[in-house]
Amino acid sequence: MSEQEESSNSKPKKLSLRLPEPVVVDTTRGPFKTRHVGMGDLKTFAPYIEKVETATDVEREELGKLALLTLVSSADNQEAPTALTEDVLS
User: Fold this and answer.
1) In the chain, at which residue ranges do the beta strands (DSSP E only) sit?
2) Which whole-number Å values give the CA distances from 42 to 8, 38, 46, 47, 50, in the listed order?
3) How many other CB atoms are there within 10 angstroms of residue 61's CB atom?
4) Are strands 82-83 and 30-34 parallel, antiparallel or unpaired?
5) Cys-Cys link to 35, which of 19, 22, 67, 80 (CB 3.0-4.6 A)?
6) d(C-alpha 80, C-alpha 90), whole Å
7) Is the dihedral of CA 26, 28, 32, 36 positive or negative?
8) What is the gyration radius of the CA atoms in the chain, in angstroms?
9) pLDDT value of position 80
10) What is the pLDDT of residue 18?
11) Is 71 helix (H, G, I), strand (E, B) or coil?
12) Which residues contact 76 (CB under 8 A, 6 or more apart)?
């Protein structure tokens, strides 16, 4: 049996979906912790992503706000980061 045949008969490799650690970003409103988009976030963003080609400016702005509220949190408390609020975005 050739090496190619042996490798195709072996168990499939597991896919590691480990995301990088969140990054702290300093802003004029204080430090914020940002994270990468995860698989679970796709459900949250799906209604916007599905119609990205035909989205209005308002819908794009809504997606931007949703992304910030979902992926960014206050970095004040490293143990339990606090989600952003609409006040911070204003």
Assistant:
1) 23-27, 30-34, 72-74, 82-83
2) 32, 7, 6, 9, 11
3) 11
4) unpaired
5) 22
6) 23
7) negative
8) 20
9) 63
10) 78
11) helix
12) 30, 31, 82
Q: What is the pLDDT of residue 53?
A: 82
Cα(42)–Cα(48) distance, rounded to whole angstroms?
Answer: 10
pLDDT at 42: 86
Q: Report the alpha-carbon distance of residue 39 to residue 27 in Å, rounded.
A: 27
45 token code pair: 């963003």
Q: Digits of tens for pLDDT over the chain (90 positions)?
A: 555 555 556 777 776 677 788 899 998 888 899 988 888 888 889 888 888 788 899 988 999 989 998 899 887 666 666 777 777 777
Extract long-range pairs of 80-85: CB within 8 Å, 24+ residues apart: 81/22, 81/33, 84/32
